[in-house]
Structures are given as structure tokens and as C-alpha cells.
Design a protein that fits this description.
This is Metalloregulator ArsR/SmtB family transcription factor. The chain contains five helices and three strands. By secondary structure, the chain is mainly alpha-helical. It has two domains: about 80 residues, Orthogonal Bundle (Arc Repressor Mutant, subunit A), CATH 1.10.10.10; about 30 residues.
């Protein structure tokens, strides 16, 4: 991103913002298996067709998905496969962070609590 103008950086931020919504990631993940129409995606994702259509419009705006009309149906597919490489990088990074956190928690779990201080046994 070095050397990009503020306008270009705003476009990059908007692209990442399009990927920052779980429903849109769910749509992209579904489309990874092949093209679908809005009704199929709504059923698979558990949302209304209107909601899915709104998310698809934003994904199309950023060039992530493409649409094709066939008779009365419109089918969507991935337009830019590189989005999966980006998502895989992010998922790998998150997995490494979780692994590190788990290791850190294990290190603390091995530490024995100190014995009580200042308690004497009285008979």
C-alpha cells in the first residue's frame, strides 16, 4: 500500500469493509462451491432474499461477485478468486494467534498458586 494516494487508500478500506460483515463472508464461502441464485443463498444462509440481495449488491460493487441472468433467475458467482487467498491468509493468521493464546494460557495453568502467607497453626 506504500505510495497510494488517500483516495486509493479509501478504496482499499472500502474493499476490506465489504469483507468485514459475517453475512457477506458466508455468501462468499457458499459461492466457493459454485454459483447460486438469491433464493438458494437465502435458504442456505438463513436470511431473507432481500437481505442477501443487499449484500450481493455491495459485493458486486467491489468486483467480488458477478451475476448472470438466465430466464427469470439470476445466478451469482465469484468474480475475483483472489478473495479466497486473502481470506485464507487472514484465517491462518487468526489460527496462529489462537494457538499462541492457548500456549500462553497453558503456561499460566502450570504455575502453582503460592501457599498462604502469614498463617500459623495454633493449637
Amino acid at each position: 500500500m506504500q505510495g497510494l494516494t488517500p483516495e486509493a487508500l479509501a478504496q482499499v478500506a472500502a474493499y476490506f469493509q465489504a469483507l468485514s460483515e459475517p453475512t457477506r463472508l458466508q455468501i462468499l464461502n457458499l459461492l466457493r462451491g459454485g454459483e447460486h441464485n438469491v433464493g438458494e443463498m437465502a435458504t442456505a444462509c438463513g436470511y431473507t432474499s432481500a437481505n442477501i440481495s443487499r449484500h450481493l449488491a455491495l459485493l458486486m460493487k467491489h468486483g467480488l461477485v458477478a451475476r448472470e441472468s438466465r430466464g427469470n433467475a439470476v445466478y451469482y458467482r465469484i468474480a475475483d478468486e483472489s478473495v479466497y487467498a486473502l481470506c485464507d491468509l487472514v484465517c491462518g493468521s487468526i489460527a496462529r494467534q489462537w494457538d499462541k493464546s492457548a500456549q500462553d494460557r497453558k503456561a499460566f495453568a502450570r504455575v502453582k498458586p503460592p501457599s498462604p502467607v502469614g498463617r500459623s497453626k495454633r493449637s
